[in-house]
Each structure stands twice: as structure tokens, then as C-alpha cells.
Design goal:
Length: 201
């Protein structure tokens, strides 16, 4: 039995932090896991930048409310869910993901949690589990599932490489060049065809 595991940002919805960087006029917040493989280091740095500018959860959620899924993402997800179980594995936070899940038809998502003060300041973050994407894929495999995985960033490589079939999707030229053995796709049609082919083997 198969479960398809997908990354969220960059695959189904635009990068939240890039959208917020534009909205807030703080260009350094455009840095994502495509640039920094160490997620804890990246998030700690982001929280420092937010504190420095006096910004909190409310401001980020206002930006998220304006974000729509990437064109074609919901249709892709609807079709995929018609023949495969799907779990979105994301390093984002439940406080960010909620409105986006509504727009995607409420798929299952495993993500993390922010620690937020009464003032709305984001004071910290709680990761669900260490190396969550790879750990989750291995856990699914340990209970009898075959996994197919797709993502765009460094933090997706573990789950992609550990799965029966794994694909880069809308990734960077650098990641594609560094991992030439991983099939890389740019359109939902290509990704859907690759997933169906993997399941048919």
C-alpha cells in the first residue's frame, strides 16, 4: 500500500517567508531551506529578525491570508487523493498552515508548532520530531507502507532518497545539479505521471 508524502511550500503553495519578506519590506527574510539546510539555525535567525522589527504572528498570518495555492495545486492534490493516501510533511507551523489547508481541501498535514507570547511575539518553536520528514517516512515504512515522496528543498532530500520513488519538484538548479540521480519535474502533469508510473511497478 502506498502513501504519497509531499512538501508544502514551493510544491503546493508559495513560500510563506518569501511572501512575508515582500509584504514587510525585509528582504533578508527571503532566505529559505533552499538556501540554508539547517532548519533550526534558519528559524532561530528568522525569529531574531522578527524581534528586531517588532513583528509577530498577527502580521505573518495577515500575509498568509492573502496567499493562494500555486495554480493547479489543488486539482493535482484532488486527483492524487482519489487513488493514493497523501500526507503533507512540512517544516512549517500549525499557526501558518491552517488557512492554506482550507484552500487545498483540508489534506492531512504533519508540521510543527510556534511558541507565541500573549503579546503575539513568536518566542520560539517546537519541532514535532527531529528530522521530521525522513523520520516520518521511515515510520510509515515500518508499519507496512511504501512511500513516494516529492519536495523542492534540502530538507526534503532525506524523505525523497529513502522512499521507493522520490522526485524533486520545482527545485533549484543547484539542488538538481548536486543530486542528478533524482528525477526533477516542473509541472504537476509530469509529477502525476511519475507517481502513477511508480505505483504501477
Amino acid at each position: 500500500m502506498y502513501i504519497t508524502c509531499l512538501d508544502l511550500e514551493g510544491v503546493l503553495v508559495p513560500e510563506i517567508w518569501i511572501a512575508f519578506a515582500k509584504e514587510s519590506g525585509i528582504p533578508e527574510l527571503k532566505r529559505t531551506t533552499r538556501d540554508e539546510p539547517d532548519y533550526n539555525k534558519l528559524m532561530t535567525w528568522r525569529l531574531e529578525v522578527l524581534k528586531e522589527h517588532g513583528l509577530g504572528l498577527k502580521e505573518i498570518q495577515e500575509t498568509i491570508a492573502k496567499i493562494d495555492p500555486i495554480p493547479g495545486a489543488k486539482e493535482f492534490l484532488d486527483e492524487l487523493r482519489s487513488f493514493s493516501q497523501v500526507i503533507i510533511l512540512s517544516d512549517t507551523f500549525s499557526q501558518f498552515a491552517g488557512p492554506l489547508m482550507e484552500k487545498l481541501g483540508r489534506p492531512t498535514i504533519f508540521c510543527n508548532t510556534l511558541e507565541v507570547a500573549e503579546s503575539g511575539e513568536i518566542t520560539g518553536f517546537k519541532m514535532r520530531i527531529e528530522d521530521a520528514k525522513l523520520t516520518t517516512v521511515k515510520a510509515l515504512q515500518s508499519i507496512g507502507f511504501e512511500t513516494i515522496a516529492s519536495g523542492d528543498s534540502y530538507n526534503d532530500l532525506g524523505m525523497i532518497q529513502a522512499s521507493k520513488a522520490g522526485f524533486l519538484f520545482k527545485s533549484t538548479e543547484k539542488i538538481k545539479a548536486d543530486y542528478p540521480e533524482l528525477p526533477a519535474y516542473e509541472t504537476y502533469e509530469e509529477l502525476m505521471a511519475a507517481i502513477k508510473k511508480a505505483m504501477a511497478v
